[in-house]
């Protein structure tokens, strides 16, 4: 097995001919630009583009294949210029019991992606735009994805805006049957949660956790990512890792400390005060008296851990905070339900501040570092302390090495505002 790095939630702002795809994403974020950024600057081995089912992006994909810039792999996925493997997917919005929720769907082949794009057009008003509201429930969408041999999983599951737990349901059993849950191998944590927080909710032990960027611009790609142990980089091996089969696994999650996430704590929608009281707390606002706050991920998870309806059935029990149920245990997807024994440990969740969050790491400093080390993955994982000190200069090296040693502090985020980093 080899270690591969992957970010599986990247959006596109425009198609190659300038048509809008994800309205809130940067205009320069095209399919080709995202693949170049992932390979050349970030140093990723796999990247998931979640707008690939939009017809304009599908046309861009086909054009890259025709020009020989992409090749379709026998194990699924597409290789870009002989290096980075691109996993083609879609972000979809379904209507659940308490509100809309976002899910990610990935497909192994161009044929399957085309078929899903055609089916998606039945449920949305404008299939050319990403993350459109679908006139269906998640369980119906799951069946369509599985029929095309795809992978289906909740996106940013705990965020207050369109996360499955943040807005859609109190319990996965409200959205899916046992048999359907056995077909969902993974769950995306989102920027405001980590393993320790998610595992406070009973019933999530059967899901592999993913930490992805949800990037809406090129610099945001790989602000969160995953290390995977695979025999090679392709869709089939990736799916096996999510299912923890035959030694394939997610070996580590790299992500923000949840306190830096922009929805970590509850916040007042009127005066924007971020809560600093013990969780869970949803109001009233201590400053202006507004009766209800925008719920934060910490507060929502703490509420579910304490007061959830208790019908979650897909685990050997709630893992204590900080416990790490393991990526080594295979999941039996032939049964109607599955779980990880509470005695095994998850892969480590490594809190890592994106370089652009660090004081002093502006565009010029970032380019200097990339000129020295090639990619962000090289800088973060392969460069020695001595090499960083020699390349960056005393002031910047102090910041980078403090980040590497965990010697940083922060101010909590919430209400749509990221937290802030301070070097001690």
UniProtKB/TrEMBL annotation:
InterPro entries: Pol/histidinol_Pase-like (IPR016195), RuvA_2-like (IPR010994). Signal peptide: none annotated. This is TIGR00375 family protein. It comes from the Bacteria.
